[in-house]
Amino acid sequence: MQEKLLETIERFDTIIICRHVRPDPDAFGSQLGLAELIRENTTKMVYTVGEDERSLSFLATMDEVDTETFKDALVIICDTANRGRIDEERYALAKETFKVDHHPEIDDYADASWVDTSYSSTSEMITRWFEETAKPNGWKMNQTSARVLYAGIVGDTGRFRHPNTTEHTFRAAGVLMEQGIDLPELFRNLYRKPLPLLRLEGELLRTVSLSEYGVAAIRVSDEQLKQYEVTVNESSALVNAISDLEGLLTWGMFVEQEDGTYRVRLRSKGPIVNTIAEKHNGGGHPLAAGASANSKEEIDTIIAELNEAAKQFNPKTQ
Ligand SMILES: [Mn+2]
Q: Which of 71, 92, 205, 253 is the residue whose CA sits 20 to 30 A from 49?
């Protein structure tokens, strides 16, 4: 599939790269890292599309592309498991589509797919594709590409701490570091917390509780977001605020949106949570997933399901 990706890119003059809605560093990193690789090594027209995300604007901003341009283009979709999460409806107009993703396959929406869950991140896939496939064909990587790909790997591995981090991940990071990345600058931007967000974190930490099975829930009301002047998107940075809590096995963050529904983020140190997310209009990785809840009752159901998963979980059998 790696060879096929290179062959497919070579056949097109116009390439548009998409990724998932509500982008995270890996979505941006894989999208822009690949775009910049193609720009550096070919004369093709390359565009990146989707909504801009203020908290990640230090990584990149998106391009405007007219609908005509899609019709002759190759569209590559990075880091997006199902078509409903693609942050560009016009992807379907493309002459050809190619999916590159490390999420479990739930929707085979593209003409060709390179899907491999053994990679920590789609950014690691792009890095290893460069090293193993593009570089032997004479491609080079510039610093812009290396920086965003590194950010993507750091984001999805929780700074090389999550169990998705492998020896291959570190080798990929090494390939990127060879280009000369300003790590202090990158980490400062990735993990900076504006004062309002830090104060909201303080309030949430003050009220956290832990169930007998090691399940915690962080609830954030629309009122709290308004009081602290934090957006729903910005609040996502707080999902790991309690990750070092002793005895914590799995947890959920439930953020009320303006329409009264809740954005749900589930995290785990063992029990599988994406199957729970799938029951609530979401999905993701086994240990990190997202979903939605329509009511406080649905939140209680999810917390009960987390407790059940934590209760069933026996680390000795894993
Ligand atoms: Mn990812």
A: 253
